[in-house]
Amino acid sequence: MDQKIRSRQARLLSEAERARLEEFQDMIHYSSRYSDDHFEYRHVTLPKNMLKVIPKDYFDPEAGTLRILLEDEWRGLGITQSLGWEHYETHAPEPHILLFKRSKDSN
User: Fold this and answer.
1) How far is residue 70's CA from residue 77's CA, in Å, rounded to a whole number?
2) Residue 30's beta-bridge partner residues?
3) C-alpha 42: how far from chain center
4) Looking at the predicted structure, is the pLDDT value of residue 7 above 80?
5) Rg for the chain, CA atoms, rounded
6) CATH number of the CATH domain containing 96
7) How far apart are CA 101 and CA 42, in angstroms?
8) Is the pLDDT confidence value at 106 over 80?
């Protein structure tokens, strides 16, 4: 993870923001895991309508996609995964798809 992102403080959701996101949490889709020699990967697909209620400061204004989220931030959205996963990319053509990875050593 980029050092700039690592040093950033997580922007936690307020109770009202969390409440607006709850209705979408059961519709989050988790891909099967796939891997290379160093990392295990998966992508998480958020319901498209969920993007409309995620706070604007979770987005990269230049790219129009979600910015790279810290663990407390993506967990706050309702994404549930075991420990060690890191959000490393957002799929620009489909901004509701978040790409995650974790080191094979963390299993």
Assistant:
1) 11
2) 44
3) 11
4) no
5) 14
6) 3.30.170.10
7) 6
8) no
User: How many domains is the chain built from?
Assistant: 1
Q: Which residue's entry shows tokens 């519709």?
A: 27
Asked whether 28 and 45 are in contact (CB, 8 A), the reply is: yes
Tokens of 44: 């998480």
**28-44 tens-digit pLDDT:** 999 999 999 999 999 99
DSSP letters for the chain:
--HHHHTSPP-PPPHHHHHHHHTTGGG-EEPPPEE-SSEEEEEEE--GGGGGTS-GGGEETTTTEEPPPPHHHHHHTT----TT-EEEEE-TTSTTEEEEEEEGGG-
- Residue 35 structure tokens: 């891997």
- Note the pLDDT of residue 3: 52
* Domain of 78, in residue numbers: 3-106
pLDDT digits (tens, 9 = 90+) for 61-92: 888 899 999 999 999 999 999 999 999 999 88
